[in-house]
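Section 5: illustrative case.
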């Protein structure tokens, strides 16, 4: 080797060393998303499998979020659903000895009804589009009709609403509220924090009184547009906390939504949605008014499935606690142009949109609405306690003895005198 070559080598080798050191230092800087330690733990996620990626795979990195999704941490759902197996026989992974159950999204594939409905409703697409959704594009918040997502094909339903069902974009990236470096392609999309994210599965087309799954349209038309509030679905149903999105990675602590989706199964949510005020307008007269007020739900109550109903029970008790007189009301949707019968919905393509059961009843409470129910019990002269109970029933077609579907949301009472 010539003296000139040796001299050049002496200059090049230290230069390469300095460059590699600088490159390594850059990757190890806090906030870059991946340290050298992080890279040794990196689990590269193959997004080409799309919506078939299981939530358990996502939970390997996003541990706290998966704990909420699958185990109900932060929620208060005690009922684990009507079955603990999906329609293709795969068990839903739930741990033993956890006080609360998994979320409705994690159990969406465990309900035996959607399994049967696949055989009778629109080739299985009516229920499966939401219980087993493929990826979708977030719709425009103000689009009159939202369309519907596509269902995963038969044999791919296990897991219910998976992480990729919501977070995977049609072009194969993972969307979230922040720009991040991750072992998969990501895209920041602020719409994921708006109600538009929930629209596909919680509106299903255009607004129709009594139709199945109208919650997004109720929020948009009755709450958001009139200016009743600025909250979006996530503000109530996915309360936020400060933490990392992936615990083992060098990412900052910041506001992250809890993936619990508390709703109709939650006493916290139902109790916070309503207020009850009892009034005796005229002293000495048994005329009573029960004011039911939707103060906390940004949509109708009840909402979602047409099977849901809000029962109002009023009771007049003597001083021994004996119930002397009672009355009940049902607040529930009635599908337009359908009769009002006591029969449950027929097992046909209209099963989810059948007419409401029960005698003639009150429609549901819209966002911000106050409803006055009047009652004049036949009471003799004396003093009484009048008690009102609100019970939210997830399936009012069931026998009343099936209390697992029922949540006693509010109990209030007042003393009255009758002359």
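Designed sequence:
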């Amino acid at each position: 080797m010539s003296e000139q070559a040796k001299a050049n080598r002496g200059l090049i080798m230290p230069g390469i060393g300095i460059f590699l050191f600088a490159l390594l230092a850059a990757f190890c800087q806090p906030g870059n998303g991946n340290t050298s330690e992080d890279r040794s733990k990196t689990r590269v996620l193959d997004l080409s499998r799309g919506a078939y990626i299981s939530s358990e795979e996502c939970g390997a990195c996003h541990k706290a979020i998966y704990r909420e999704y699958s185990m109900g941490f932060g929620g208060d759902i005690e009922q684990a659903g009507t079955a603990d197996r999906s329609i293709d026989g795969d068990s839903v992974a739930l741990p033993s000895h956890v006080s609360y159950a998994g979320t409705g999204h994690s159990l969406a594939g465990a309900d035996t009804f959607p399994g049967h409905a696949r055989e009778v409703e629109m080739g299985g697409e009516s229920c499966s589009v939401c219980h087993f959704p493929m990826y979708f594009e977030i719709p425009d918040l103000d689009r009159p009709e939202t369309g519907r997502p596509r269902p995963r094909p038969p044999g791919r339903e296990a897991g219910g609403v998976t992480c990729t069902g919501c977070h995977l974009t049609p072009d194969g990236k993972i969307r979230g509220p922040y720009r991040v470096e991750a072992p998969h392609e990501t895209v920041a999309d602020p719409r994921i924090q708006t109600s538009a994210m929930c629209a596909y599965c919680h509106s299903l087309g255009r607004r129709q009184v009594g139709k199945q799954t109208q919650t997004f349209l109720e929020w948009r038309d009755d709450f958001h547009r009139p200016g009743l509030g600025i909250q979006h679905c996530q503000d109530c149903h996915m309360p936020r906390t400060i933490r990392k999105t992936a615990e083992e990675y060098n990412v900052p602590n910041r506001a992250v939504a809890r993936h619990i989706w508390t709703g109709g199964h939650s006493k916290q949510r139902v109790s916070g949605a309503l207020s009850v005020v009892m009034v005796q307008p005229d002293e000495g007269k048994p005329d009573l008014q029960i004011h039911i007020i939707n103060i906390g739900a940004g949509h109708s109550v009840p909402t979602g499935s047409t099977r849901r109903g809000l029962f109002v029970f009023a009771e007049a008790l003597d001083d021994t606690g004996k119930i002397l007189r009672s009355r009940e009301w049902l607040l529930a949707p009635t599908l337009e142009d359908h009769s009002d019968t006591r029969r449950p919905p027929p097992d046909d393509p209209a099963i989810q949109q059948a007419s409401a059961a029960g005698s003639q009843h009150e429609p549901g409470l819209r966002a911000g609405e106050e409803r006055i129910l009047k009652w004049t019990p036949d009471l003799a002269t004396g003093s009484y306690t009048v008690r009102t109970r609100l019970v939210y029933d997830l399936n009012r077609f069931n026998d009343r003895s099936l209390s697992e579907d029922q949540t006693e949301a509010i109990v209030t009472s007042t003393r009255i005198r009758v002359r």
